[in-house]
Amino acid sequence: MTISESELAALINDYKNGINLTQKYSNESEVIQLAYELQAGSYTEIALQQSEIHEKFCVEISTQINSFCNLSEQNSLLEVGIGEGNSILGISSFLNFSGEYFGVDLSFSRLTWCEDNFFKANIPIRLAVANALALPFSDESMDVLLTIHAIEPNGGKEEQILNELARVTRNYLILIEPDFEKGDIQIKSRMKSLGYVENIRKYFSRLDFELILDKQIINNKDLNDGISLNPSTIFILKRKRLVMRLADTSFCTPSMKLSLRNLTNGLISSNGIYYPKVGSIPFLQPMDALYILRPKFELS
Questions:
Q1: Domains of the chain by range and CATH?
Q2: Is the dihedral of CA 287, 249, 83, 153 positive or negative?
Q3: Phi/psi class of residue 41: alpha, beta or left (left: φ > 0; alpha: ψ in -120 to 50)?
Q4: Do β-strands 261-263 and 100-105 pair in parallel, antiparallel, or remain unpaired?
Q5: How far is 95 from 210, CA to CA, in rounded Å?
Q6: 0.85 surpassed by pTM
Q7: pLDDT band for position 128 (50/70/90)?
Q8: CA–CA separation, 61 and 68 (whole Å)
Q9: Residues 22, 153 contacting (CB under 8 angstroms)
Q10: Is residue 111 within 8 Å of residue 281, measured between CB atoms?
Q11: Which of 39, 52, 193, 250 has the fewest CB atoms within 10 Å, measured from its CB?
Q12: Pairing of strands 142-148, 125-129
């Protein structure tokens, strides 16, 4: 879908009035992107205000990951739907991981918050605006791939997204997502009304991965008087076969997976597909592509 300026104004007004945009309009990526843009900064504020809940969540998740994943031998970790980076930053404090961090999100504004949060923590990270259905990375390029409520709003696209995540994952695929199957009637009704994912377990057997952990999370981040409206489960999947070839963690075109050359204000492929960049963050969704085929001057 393409949102006009008048529709955008209506969306912003609805958001200010407390209306859930994906519930009212759709769970298309463009609506999700706008919702995240409008929320930018709020997750960092919540993490600071609810630091005790946040830390309990991060300790629980990191404990499970350290127990089931040999992170000391992994060189790259990508979070899809990284948002402002609060969760992975909190988890990273307790992980046995010393490799390179990567993050993608639909929202540029959220990524600017993420960039600042990682800078303050003195941890390097490479970020890009990207879609979970078309990640700008080559096959089996990331040793560890993580999602934290990123698949959540994409009901009906579960299999497509899981296939794309699995394509990029070299060793461990870690999913922390709402658990429709284990929810009660109220939770299931809420998840359906919001267009959340359902029954993602049934797709795991179709991947070249073994499910090594399926465990409900105790310290959900939205706990209110001990009750969570969005109870989640941590799933850890390990690739069944050993990948021998060297991993290339460079950004590539999201559709054809072509190599990209870095320019001052963007990235470009050898056949002239150009993706703009604001600051250090490139826009690498398929819809962001421009075509520069016969420029008079050399691009730099």
A1: 5-39 (no CATH), 51-239 (3.40.50.150), 252-279+286-300 (no CATH)
A2: positive
A3: left
A4: unpaired
A5: 22
A6: yes
A7: very high
A8: 11
A9: yes
A10: yes
A11: 52
A12: unpaired
155-179 average pLDDT score = 96
pLDDT for 226-272, tens place per residue? 557 788 999 999 999 988 777 899 999 999 999 999 999 999 999 99
Q: Is residue 24 over pLDDT 90?
A: no
3 state SS of 234? strand
Q: What distance in Å separates the CA atoms of residue 141 and residue 260, rounded to the nearest whole number?
A: 15
Helices (H), the chain: 5-16, 21-24, 29-39, 42-49, 51-68, 86-92, 108-120, 158-168, 185-193, 201-204
**Residues 267, 260 contacting (CB under 8 angstroms):** yes
**Distance of alpha carbon 86 from the chain centroid:** 12
Residue in this structure with the two tokens 């992170």, named with its chain if needed? 71
Residue 167, both tokens? 């394509």
Enumerate residues 6+ apart whose C-beta is below 8 A from 212.
68, 236, 237, 238
DSSP sequence for 78-91: EEET-TTSHHHHHH
Look up residue 111 and give its two tokens: 């990524």
Strand 281-282 to 290-291 pairing: unpaired
Helix then strand count (H, E) for the chain reads 10, 12
Classified as helix, coil or strand, 60 is: helix
155-169 core/surface letters (b: 16 or more CB in 10 A; e: else): bebbeebbebbbbbb
Whether residue 85 contacts residue 92, with contact meaning beta carbons closer than 8 Å, is answered with no
> Which DSSP symbol is given to 163?
H
